[in-house]
Amino acid sequence: HKRSLTMVRDILMYMDRTFVKQNQKKPVYEMGLMLFCTHCTRSPRVKERIKKLLLQLIQAEREGEKVDRDLIRSTTQMLLDMGKNVYAEDFEKPFMDSSKQYFMVQSQQMISSSSMPEYLRQVEAKLHEEGERVTACLSSDWTSEHGIKSVVEQELIGRHMKTLITKEGSGLVRLLEEERIDDLRRMFTLFSCVAGGQDLIEEQMAEHVSLKGKEIVESQENQQDALMYVSKLISLKEQYDDIIARAFRGDKSFTTKLNKSFEVFVNLNQRSPEYVSLAMDNYLRGSKGKTSGASTTNEEQAEVQLERALQLFRFLQEKDLFERYYKQHLAKRLLNDRSQSEDLERKVIQMLKAECGYQFTAKLEGMFKDMGTSRDLQASFRQHAQHVEHSDLGVELQVKVLTTGFWPTQAAAQCQLPPEIEHACNVFKRFYLAKHNGRQLTWQTNMGNADMKARYDRIYQVNMPSYHMVVLLLFASESTASLSFQEIEVATRIPAVDLKRTLQSLACAHFKLLTKEPKGKEVAQEDTFSYNTKFTHKMIKFKVSGIAATRETSEEVKESRNKMNEDRNPQIDAAVVRVMKARRVMEHNLLIAEVTKQLQARFNPNPMIIKKRIEGLIDRDFLQRQHGNHKVYEYLA
């Protein structure tokens, strides 16, 4: 018919160019196609038969039979030549409807007999088959590829997303736990084609990670070991970061969802800031060589571990509590020379400054400055003792002068130092105050350490904390046979709690420099102690460490939190005044929200605490309530 029409069009070409255009008639070729469509392809008997045969041929091929693809292609091309509306109504719509019904049945059969990964592989194959069939069988001018793809995705994926994700034994949780990257990537690709599919994977993954995270933070075993606690959280984070990168193509929405989950469960445990700081302390202490300090390998490994720990730091809501613990641990490392690398310490401070700003690390940087100043001061004092005092101090005194406010010093009770140590301290005090008139020195004896020579079966060189030295020197006289706990307490004036730990370390730990009666691992106030003349050890030089819990006791945690709450009050006051000074007038809820927003970089303030601080500022005439509306505050200049 098309060849005949072409011949007729050529014969009547002059009429097409003149008469048809002038009278706005249809061209000969279009008129012939319209008549063919009306009286042939769209006649009631032919139309239904063409549709039925086409759908039967496609159905047969889907079921594996070999069909004449060229026949299907030429027929659909003929319908398209009749017009896009003819193609859509007579073939495309019925084709989509029948495909929808076919894949609805197929999906039920497949999902009942296959695991989720197998089902997704079958879906992937079906999509490929349908795409290839549309390209090979249907008109090249107007294909239905996009339409049939949507039908297959909706029927095979969209209808069964929740069933697939929660499928027992092979659902998303199983794939995540076994890290089956290929199956997860296939799932992500297919689910992303359906509205809401990607969101469903995100939610299920976040829910699973939250459960895993809660198990870690609530585990009593993990809470006994800060390093294990932090290591397991870091491993969990790295595991799912890797899955997101490899299986979910590094999609940012997955990373955001993962981070939100971590932020929730990490802060379920109020001791997370302490544990993160303890883990970082462990990495920064490392292991120092005998001559060359920290090895490069150890330092590189520690830097990697610290960067991982800082990932957890970002999730902490109480960053000011972390700062408090970190400052305590840094002080011990610096004062006891336990840090494996000063460069590494400074790198961590730079990382913290980048995360939280200069104010967060100002005191930490001040601690390093004090250490440098103390080294210079020590050199000057040594010259002073030799040339000015003209006397041998009897001991080599090394003093570190710490600035109050930078260091986590406490108002510790002053213990009674031995006379020779007391004399050396007084010499230094005169020297220092002569150089810095008007300053005040307070000795922190609980933070020092000493090198001693002790005579047992031979002479040993022992490094120990200052409290240990003070106690041990009580037994220096041969006339001192034994001393009771009360006698030692009176003679040294060391607080009872610290004295118990000191005596436990000297008499009950690895190096038993003293003996205790009665025997036992705990120290009581009724115990008596004597010099252990039978002590022997294969090493001439060794270190006696104090017995101090690496983790705070419940009482210490409570005390730390109370002190932290006291420290937060001025910050809340300052934030309220800052906001009100800028706004002048503000409604209560808006003020609470703005103050919370300003402070959340360091901690999340309790709205009730903010309200109490506002009341206090009203009493101190910084603010007042608006007349007639008690929910609105006004700033008083």
Task: Give the secondary structure arrangement, pairings included.
Elements: H1 2-11, H2 13-22, H3 28-41, H4 44-62, H5 69-81, H6 84-113, H7 116-137, H8 145-156, H9 161-165, H10 172-178, H11 181-191, H12 197-218, H13 220-223, H14 226-247, H15 252-266, H16 272-285, H17 296-315, H18 319-335, H19 342-356, H20 358-387, H21 419-435, E1 449-455, E2 459-465, H22 466-473, E3 482-484, H23 485-492, H24 496-507, E4 514-517, E5 528-531, E6 541-543, H25 554-583, E7 585-587, H26 588-599, H27 607-619, E8 623-626, E9 629-635
Parallel strand pairs: 2-6
Antiparallel strand pairs: 1-2, 3-5, 4-5, 7-9, 8-9
Helix pairs in contact: 1-3, 4-6, 5-6, 6-8, 7-8, 7-11, 12-14, 12-15, 14-15, 14-16, 14-17, 16-17, 16-18, 17-19, 18-20, 19-20, 22-24, 25-26, 25-27
What does this protein look like?
- By secondary structure, this protein is mainly alpha-helical.
- Helices cover 65% and strands 7% of the residues.
- It contains 27 helices and nine strands.
- It has helices spanning 2-11, 13-22, 28-41, 44-62, 69-81, 84-113, 116-137, 145-156, 161-165, 172-178, 181-191, 197-218, 220-223, 226-247, 252-266, 272-285, 296-315, 319-335, 342-356, 358-387, 419-435, 466-473, 485-492, 496-507, 554-583, 588-599, 607-619, and strands at 449-455, 459-465, 482-484, 514-517, 528-531, 541-543, 585-587, 623-626, 629-635.
- It has a three-stranded mixed sheet with strand order 1-2-6. A three-stranded antiparallel sheet has the order 3-5-4.
- Helix 14 (226-247) runs antiparallel to helix 15 (252-266) and helix 22 (466-473) packs across helix 24.
- The longest helix is centred in the N-terminal third of the chain and has 30 residues, at 84-113.
- The protein is elongated.
- The relative contact order is 0.04.
- The model is unreliable at 289-295 (pLDDT under 50).
